[in-house]
Write a structure and sequence with these properties.
123 residues, 45% helix, 7% strand, two-stranded antiparallel sheet, mainly alpha, 5 helices, 2 strands, single chain
Amino acid sequence: MMYQAEIETLPLDQLRDLQNKRLRTLLPRMLAQVPFYREHWAGIDIGSIKTVDDLPKLPFTKKDHLRQEYPFGLFAVPTDQIARIHASSGTTGKPTVVGYTKADLALFDTVVARSLAAAGARP
């Protein structure tokens, strides 16, 4: 069973086009709105990252980066747009904090529904 057949059955070239389009929208937004990424990606021409195949040009974001930017340094939206916060217990140091907007939560719902459908769950 498929949850979103129109997306899940896209021809590979169309799926790649969609992924690349979204990537080219996301990266400039991250640079503009998250100071951490302006510093972390310093010296990288973000305009040269045009496809998902270019992602290895970017350095990894590690869990320590999340801790260093505690609590809200990696948020890409103002805190009044955060609908839910997840924080670790911080047993190894500072907790890690991730904020989710309403749009993030809706996307997460869709991802879970697609995963459950792929695993055979039925309504």
